[in-house]
Amino acid sequence: MDALLLLVFGLAVLIAAFLLKPYFDWRFSCCQSLESQVSRTSFPCSPGELVPPQWKAPEVALSIVVPAYNEEYRIPQMLDETLSYLESRGAEFSYEVIVVDDGSEDNTYAAALSTSRDASLRHGEVRVIQLLYNRGKGFAVRAGMLAARGQLLLMADADGATGIRDLERLERALGPKDEAPQIAFGSRHHLREEALAKRAWYRNVLMVGFHCAVWLLVGGTVKDTQCGFKLFKAKVGKRIFSSLHLYRWAFDIEVLILSHFFRAGLVEVPVTWVEMPGSKLNLLTGALTMLRDMALVQALYAFGIWQPSVL
Hints:
With 311 residues, this protein is an alpha/beta fold. The protein contains ten helices and eight strands. The chain has one domain (2-302): Spore Coat Polysaccharide Biosynthesis Protein SpsA, Chain A, CATH 3.90.550.10. The protein has an eight-stranded mixed beta sheet, sandwiched between helices. Helix 2 (75-88) runs parallel beside helix 3 and helix 7 runs parallel beside helix 10 (283-302).
């Protein structure tokens, strides 16, 4: 009987540790400055200077944040295409591309640095940040967004699945006025029928189940929360990512929740998208952890344990 009780207790501890892991990850991180979690940067960075002060005006028109984990072979092509496009927009369009190496085990940092040095950049620059160890895509995006200096902040995946020229669609959707939407989510929802026809049945079941869970826990106003191509006006982007608590795959859901908290207008914009090989997401474990994270974030906000940051 004692052995059985011990086994039950051990299982309960393991289940609780799994369910509360995002909370403990956040508690560990919030006790440290962002600089203390960075291994190196490609640009001079004194302590306390990585994140620009909130009162400081943006220095460039656009910041593109690219989270990268073990992307040694895909990041060069993505950067080449992105930089060629950005340079083609002319001298009046200033930009920066911030690649955040999420503690990669390969040469992602060196690959990003080499590609940026080989490019002939006249109107912008590439900044590379390497984290001490792997923290998750959400944390990497958060680090890049907080370090960004742009009037507009774009999140883009390292695989280049969404064409960089679709940035213009998102820009037009935001518009110049303060009352216009402040966030534009790239969306693949218009490609849903084609994706259902091509994907294996179990992938379709998981995808439909995920969308149902999002609808139940968050609401169904956004059809595609997980597309890795999102544009923010600087003020609301800084507020959202300084408030972010989820650091793994489900962080997009918290971005949506925080956009409601801050009453930031949000628009969904169809984008081109190509499914790229080399995904880092395991379908089964990814589905379980994302479901856990979605439920946990709602519970912790509901009980006031997690709250948006006040800037």
